[in-house]
Amino acid sequence: MTDTKTDTHADTPQPRPRWRKHVIRAAVIAPIVTAIVFYIGVKDRWFKPPYPETGKAICWLIGGQEEAYNFGKVVPGKVYRSARPDERLYRYVADTYGVRQVVRLCGPEDTDVIPLPPDDLNMDVTIVSWESSIIPPRDELRRVLSVLDDETPALVHCSAGVHRTGFAVGAYRVLRQGWSAERAREEMQRYSWNDLSENDLYIHLGKLARMRDGAAHASR
Questions:
Q1: Mean of the pLDDT values across residues 65-76?
Q2: Cα 54 from Cα 76, distance rounded (Å)
Q3: Residue 118: which region, alpha, beta or left (left: phi > 0; alpha: psi -120 to 50)?
Q4: Which residues contact 136 (CB under 8 A, 6 or more apart)?
Q5: What's the confidence (pLDDT) of residue 29?
């Protein structure tokens, strides 16, 4: 008599190990969580600018272009600020805000790291070489402020958009808009300004405010 029993286990699909499902799930979820955490960290300024290219790419993908560059509207329609711009940001501010002037506070060097605007945008560029913790020369500050006084929309930037940019914008607030040095500092801190390392610049804003008030009093 022939044995007709068959091996049923050979044709039965074997269940996949559970760990594979967990690995696949983690591989899908991890990049999403990373992107969300990075965006929130940038938006709420948990991280210090300038941000890495990978982080910028994440921000662009999820619609956080401005957060990727420590960007701010100083005077809407006229003055804007940022960390180191690249071609994407130049084109974005040109199309979105009509920016046609750039004030570069970090000097003419390192254009491979902090590029100049693309030629086809026809932006006027003013370049000065400021240090992050040193009070800039008075004539250069006047030069920067004269660009910001112009009605043509301008972007002012340095590398991180914090100290040199913060001082330039703070001086504009104090000398052109009548802000107190304390109010200007509060705004600067929202862009990661560090009082401990940059106190001389804040002290100088106070001097500018007193000079402004003295000139106003003398003209009465």
A1: 93
A2: 29
A3: beta
A4: 128, 130, 164, 167
A5: 62
